[in-house]
Task: structure prediction
Amino acid sequence: MRRRAGESILIGEDIEIQIIHIGESRIKIGITAPRSVPVSMKEVKLVGQENLAAAQLRSVTVLRNLLDRLIESPAGGEK
Amino acid sequence: MATTQTPPQRCDTRYFGPVEYNEESVMVFPDGIPAFEQERRFLALRQPINEPLVFLQSLTNPNLCFATLPALSACPGYRLNMTPEDLRALGLEGGQPAIGRDVLCLIILSLEENAPPTANLLAPIVVNLHTLNGRQAIQTDSPYSHREVLPLRGAACL
Result:
């Protein structure tokens, strides 16, 4: 599907995505959707998944030891 | 931080048993953070033995605690590029805030088995130091990833 600025895409009965402006490296879009449909950047989901993973950390000691090792071996230094 | 103090309160923590804290040091996240939208109140815990780590402990869920690094420890030269929405939500006017002076900026670390720790440089925890309001700022147009491997690629930190 190809669209120009000002044109729209419909998804189902009540979701509309309009191409508002096309810039050099980004586009501005308008989304009309029912309140029950969450609209967010994909990054929000990625960050949520990353937060869930981060919350599983079991041992502070293990993490600290890893970090200590990283700090002790400066970039380019010996392992 | 504040000089007028309420009596210390106690909370349980995921890693350190019960700790005492003052209400004045509570950081409030009005929207929570992604995947934890209901968690609004956090403490930043530091311990000499675990320097430079900072632990972001939930006050409503003792079992929820994030291990973080101050942004500039995780990545010297780290630059914030917060969206206008995030800046407005934190009451930060006049451009990007200065890390350490205007805001506390923490990078959440993640550790999976048999892999080096990773750092979410894309979405730092940013806390307005004047109001102690915070949010996780998901940056657009960012050179950073949500899963930068530590030690960080030199280029990402210039």
